[in-house]
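REQUEST ID: PR-0412
SUBMITTED BY: lab tech R.K.
PRIORITY: routine
TASK: structure prediction, single protein chain
INPUT:
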Amino acid sequence: MALIKANTHFPYITTIIVFTALVIMLFLGFWQLQRMDEKQQRIAHIEQAKQQATLSLPKVISEVSHYQDYQAHATGSFTETLFYIDNKLHGGKPGFYVLAPFNTSYGVLMVNMGWIENKGARGEMPSIKLPSNRGELTRLEGIVYIPTNNAFVKETNQAFGQFPALLQELDLAQISQHLNTEVLPFVLRLLPNDSTDLVREWKVMSMQPEKHLAYAIQWFGLAVAGLTIFLISLRKRSS
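STATUS: complete
OUTPUT:
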């Protein structure tokens, strides 16, 4: 009878809630460790890329995913078309990334010209002067960047073909629709150049691996603390 009475008062609902929380915290901890590992691999990949010679455009196209962060060169010509990617911060100031289509023998390559501060009203885009070809082809050098779409940002600019175009994110599929032509599946981030006012300080990752490790330790610590408190409360309950 004493055993039945003890089982009757066992906190089943609380136990389910606690263990569900523990599973979630452990999952988040291991996820942060996974992100740390991914960032470490990315850093190693970047260091490897720095040791390599500048790649040609067809070489990059042959295996784009492998050449992320590598330096490459391309020859072609600009059009007067410009895309402004909104809500980009630099030094705490709001601004835009300025992208321009670059016509090459291998397709249209989107070139990130750099960052410029937004000093005007909301939606007002600063004027940018593209390099003049003067009848000759232009040779560009930059870093290969494969953009990833942000699921939390929804593009609203449906005025296809109207330029300059203001976009909420760097979405190559959307850019293709605006240009009414396919573009190559990566962006060339131009190298720094003193002859332009555009800022070219490319941030590879928003969070360093050490930060992910710190978050993982926090989640594991919370899981241990939660389990300890729960076991102590059970012991007091049964005493």
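NOTES: The helical segments are 2-8, 12-50, 57-62, 172-179, 209-238.
REVIEWED BY: pending
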